[in-house]
Design brief:
By secondary structure, the chain is of the alpha/beta class. It has four helices and ten strands; from the N terminus they run βββαβαββββαββα.
Length: 207
């Protein structure tokens, strides 16, 4: 029987759910530097075999040697590009730590109760506004983290997609990275603990 392993790619590491526990432990690759506006895992490419082996051993220590049973349920930052998604998928599948990878972005994990909602988050690179409908990203808009106007972004929630132009959709503020102070009074705030609680029971079939 396949085994789903929830994981979160954060700004500086990978959080992996512990076996039989509702807590996460970080995977940190030695020698990785902080480079402004470049996700840390880009550096995996320069020594990919070593990084894949480190990750495989990490998963083996957490979940045992039956790696072919694993499906990695990977939650990515909201501004992850299509090319980055391909790299992430290939990195994990070719590491030998799993048989398959399923991905979705953070915004898609913010609510299980709403069929339609708006998500707002901030990565190392961008502020990201998204319209989520039935677990799919239907529209997305980026703003600079260095030059933005809070009220303009909030007004743009009504312009993001025709579905929400005349209908109130809940606005979820993803404060997982604790960087949304300017927006905490603008919507429903998801704290780091609340976000992790949602991920521990994530349904791979919806990824």
């Amino acid at each position: 029987m396949a085994r789903s392993i929830p994981m979160i790619i954060t700004n500086n590491n990978i959080l992996v759910k512990k076996r039989d526990e509702n807590t996460f432990t970080p995977f940190n690759m030695p020698g990785i530097e902080d480079i402004r506006n470049i996700p840390f895992y880009h550096q995996f490419a320069s020594r990919i075999a070593a990084c894949q082996n480190e990750f495989k051993e990490f998963i083996k220590e957490l979940y045992g040697k039956k790696l072919a049973k694993n499906i990695l349920a990977v939650i990515t930052p909201d501004d992850t590009s299509p090319l980055e998604r391909i790299f992430i998928n290939e990195f994990f599948v070719n590491s030998g730590a799993c048989k398959a990878v399923a991905q979705m972005n953070m915004g898609q994990a913010l609510s299980k109760a709403d069929d339609k909602y708006i998500s707002l988050s901030m990565s190392e690179r961008n502020i990201i506004l998204q319209y989520i409908s039935n677990n799919e990203v239907k529209a997305k808009h980026y703003y600079s983290t260095h030059d933005y106007d809070v009220e303009t972004i909030i007004k743009d929630t009504k312009k993001l997609h025709i579905d929400v132009e005349y209908v109130d959709a809940p606005l979820y503020i993803n404060n997982f990275n604790r960087n949304m102070d300017d927006f905490l009074d603008k919507g429903i705030v998801i704290t780091p603990k609340e976000f992790l609680d949602k991920i521990v029971s994530i349904d791979v079939e919806k990824l």
